[in-house]
């Protein structure tokens, strides 16, 4: 539905390292890095998720980004990679029946405290 999204992070180097590791299990990688402009872009074929060096305009509890996973295993791998990369647990992998019976997600707080999720909607 969207072409791209970007948001400010307080420490571009720290956040870029976090997202590079956390998003790898989902098939997303660092595709673009323009340090002279303070931006880093991630995606599978082209950058769609951009982080920008700056002062975050939103409070941590105002930002929630969910990345699509193709399997529950990818959600599990995202969670493990994100925690290993320095993220903080905000909801271990599991079914969230309150959303729908096959909603399988994991939530991690990134270096700025933003709520980052990986979600799979299939029963496997």
The major beta sheet can be summarized as: 5 strands, mixed
- Count of individual domains: 1
Level-1 CATH class name: Alpha Beta
Tally of alpha and pi helices: 2
SSE order, one letter for each helix or strand: EHEEEEHEEEE
The residue-averaged pLDDT reads 95
Q: State the separation between the terminal residues, measured CA to CA.
A: 24 Å
CATH architecture: Roll
Global structural class: alpha+beta
CATH topology: 2,3-Dihydroxybiphenyl 1,2-Dioxygenase, domain 1
Radius of gyration: 14 Å
DSSP summary, beta strand count: 9
Assembly status: single chain
The low-confidence runs, each spanning 5 or more residues with pLDDT under 50, are none
Strand content: 25-35%
- Could you say which overall geometry the principal axes of the C-alpha atoms support? globular
Tell me about this structure.
- The protein is an alpha+beta fold and 124 residues long.
- The protein has a single domain (5-120), classed as 2,3-Dihydroxybiphenyl 1,2-Dioxygenase, domain 1, CATH 3.10.180.
- It is built from two helices and nine strands.
- It has helices spanning 12-23, 72-84, and strands at residues 5-9, 29-34, 39-43, 49-53, 64-68, 88-89, 94-95, 104-109, 115-120.
- The strands form two sheets. Strands 5, 6, 7, 8 and 9 form a five-stranded mixed β-sheet that branches.
- Helix 1 runs antiparallel to helix 2.
- The model has no long low-confidence stretch (mean pLDDT 95).
